[in-house]
Amino acid sequence: MLDIRKRTGYIFLAVMIAQVILVSAQVQTRSGTRALQAVTFGVFSRIEIGTASAVDKVRNVWGSYVGLRGARAENEYLKQRVAALEVQLKMEHAQAARSERLQALLDLKSQSTIPMLAAEVIAGNPDTVMRTMTINRGSDDGVTADMAVIAPGGVVGRVIGPVAPHAARVQLLIDRTAAAGAVTERARAGGMVVGIEGDPPLRMDLVSNLADVKTGDAVVASGVDGIFPKGYFIGQVERVQRGSGLYQTITVRPGVSFSSLEDVLVVLTPPRPATRDEAPK
Amino acid sequence: MKTAVVIVAIVAALTLQTTLAGLLAGGSIAVNLVLVAVVYLALSYGAVTGLLTGAIGGIAQDALAGGIVGLGGMSKTLVGFLVGVLGAQFNLSTTVPRMVMFVAATFVHQLVFEGLHAMIGGRHFSPQWTSTLVQALTNALIGVLAFALVENGPGAMQRRRMHRATLSKRRF
């Protein structure tokens, strides 16, 4: 029986001798290994092609994945940035508009000798019948019922009771039950401005057919109601229609944009009893 | 089973080696995975498997490289045989002796390969010690990791029992 130690040695020698012969054949002619090289390369090249293809696919997938992740992250970042900038832009626009409004209020307040209090509109009225709004000033600030509320554009309305310590309700002039003594600035034709359902939302009543009123005339507060300060702008005459009776039908476009009111001034002068005649003494 | 393991190991080593070379085209590969496979199989299955794996793997590598076929085969056959013999004589079942064996095998392989090229291929004998050291350390690291993976992977206990049975049968 062949000793395994000897067998291993024989195998080693046989393998080495076979390789020496192989190498010798190549050194002499190189013709002996061409077939071996061709076969080995031919077989293994298929494995290499498969492996390279697989590696390429993995690299492509990985590259695409990484690229996609980068693009997605960048897209998310840009979206957030755009959203943030849009918000910032809107805030700046709002800030600028608010600054303009406050400046106008300040100008109005400084021009007038009447004591006024700036207030912010904090709520509207969801009820379509009553046209009111809520301001952030109340009895603690000296606000009482029937005080006039104005804005740079003109008369807004009057405070109606009850007044809370830190808030008050304001009846807008365009409310159907609201009214203000008015006079046209050019012809001094007196009447009463009331709110109506329609466009424009104000009508000037009790103006004589004989009065000279034209479209475009400014309508200001006459002061006879004891609430609205005399001379404050209410609106502009939009249509004049001579009626069959004693009075003309005049519609007035308010100077205030009631749908976008944010800041107002409360005239702190207590209301006085209404007078029947606005003519100076 | 052993034959299948040898074939799979050689094909996998060659595939990985050529793939790595393809990825690092233009750069040098500081690892010889075929040699790692030869040493691994020699340590695991003995000298005969080691030398046969060395011969087949070396010849295949030579054939793919395009040089003189057999020089790498001879050097790997020698390395496989020596590692197999030493593995049967000494206890090489821990990490450090295995690392030493991989490093030594790399140096022996490189010296024999360069020597054969100098004798037969007419090339000047100039072994690159630094790059050989780097390759030896890389080979050792990969070889030890391969051992750790196989010994601690799934079915480790069963393989250990089979390995002990193989070693008890082996006299050389």
Can you put this structure into words, describing what you see?
The complex is a heterodimer of chains A (281) and B (172). Chain A has 281 residues and is α+β, with helices and mostly antiparallel strands. Chain A has a domain at 116-267: Rod shape-determining protein MreC, domain 1 (Thrombin, subunit H), CATH 2.40.10. Chain A contains 2 helices and 12 strands. Chain A has helices spanning 4-28, 34-111; strands spanning 116-123, 132-135, 148-151, 154-160, 168-172, 179-184, 190-195, 202-205, 218-221, 233-242, 248-254, 263-267. In chain A, strands 1-2-5-4-3-12 form a 6-stranded antiparallel barrel. A 6-stranded antiparallel β-barrel of chain A has the order 6-7-8-11-10-9. In chain A, strand 10 (233-242) and strand 11 form a beta hairpin. Chain A is rod-shaped, with a radius of gyration of 46 Å. The model of chain A has no long low-confidence stretch (mean pLDDT 81). Chain B has helices at residues 2-23, 33-45, 47-65, 71-89, 95-121, 129-152, 156-169. Chain B is mainly alpha-helical and 172 residues long. Chain B is globular. Chain B has one domain (2-169): Arp2/3 complex 21 kDa subunit ARPC3. Chains A and B meet through helix 1 and helix 2 of A and helix 1, helix 3 and helix 4 of B.
